[in-house]
Design a protein that fits this description.
The protein is α/β, with parallel strands linked by helices. It contains 14 helices and twelve strands. The strands form two sheets. The chain has a six-stranded parallel β-sheet, sandwiched between helices. It has a six-stranded parallel β-sheet with strand order 9-8-7-10-11-12, sandwiched between helices. The longest helix has 24 residues.
Amino acid sequence: MSPVIASVPSGHVYVRHLAAPDGDTRVTRLPDPRPRANVPDAQWWPPRMLEPGWVEEHAGEFDLMHVHFGFDAVSPQTLVELTEALRRHHRPLVLTVHDLRNPHHLDPALHDAQLGVLVEAADAVLTLTPGAAGRIRHRWGREALVVPHPHVVEEERLAAPRPAHEGFVVGVHVKSLRAGMDPVPVIDAAVAALADLPDARVRVDAHTDVMTPGFARHAPEVEHHLRDLALSGAVELHVHDYFTDGQLWDYLQSLDVSVLPYRFGTHSGWLEACYDLGTVVAAPDCGYYAEQRPCLSYATPRPADRLPGSRALPLTDVLRAAHRDRPAWRADPFERRRERVQIAALHEQVYANVLAAVPDRRPACTS
């Protein structure tokens, strides 16, 4: 009988691509329960599976819980109660550590406490890079299995030819200004780097909520700076709402280099999408992006945010070298498919090992 996994969440593209691409799987993942809040049908957050009461009510419907994302606003005490409920019902916990520093939290204290509860309670811990595994070992004494991030872009687009475009385009996507983003120094560095290079231009995309007075996420200083740069002709400014997936893939393939404007972070789904589509990423030296996929590394403007031992060059130097050398990395679609099959098998083995160690286990009732 296939084990039933309560994935938190199951609707995220990362989790969906943990299954083999041909549908051959030995596990079943529960769909995300509808959140209590009045949200769109496709939205999975805030995840109800992280409520201790949900576990008490539905423990007979799953065999183990696998937590990925969604505990940003869950208190450490509630997470303790969640893990206690899982233990009472002989339901083990698997944790994938995607973020050692939450990109939405300016103060790391809450995320540190949340991770501390989950890492210490987990029956198995996974992460995406050796560097992150080393940090987990150092902080909590736990050995994390390193499993690469699966592809993000769907297989049909993976194999499609990359459209041609004119010039050398460097893009910075401001999105909705998460706490971990520091876009202005990055944009200024890109402008300085490309100012005297032939056929080179900087494209800046910002979401409407950042650029519009009266919106909850309006950032006046950022808005004024970007509009001044656009008026001077230093950047091409595009203000819009969230892209659909298809629009995002088209946008990424219109760039030669996508610069990640992060002050802190660990891993990146954006990097994976760029690798899928053949767009080079310039990533800061504050996380383990360079271990995740081939990319350019630049020194974050704030020295305190850099990983110890980093020798990354300033972004201006990195972009000028990219203009000269034109690096190109793109995932091979056949390799991505093979990798995804391996990722699925590794997860199935982790689940089997964890479940085999549970005493008095009663399999989930799926009828």
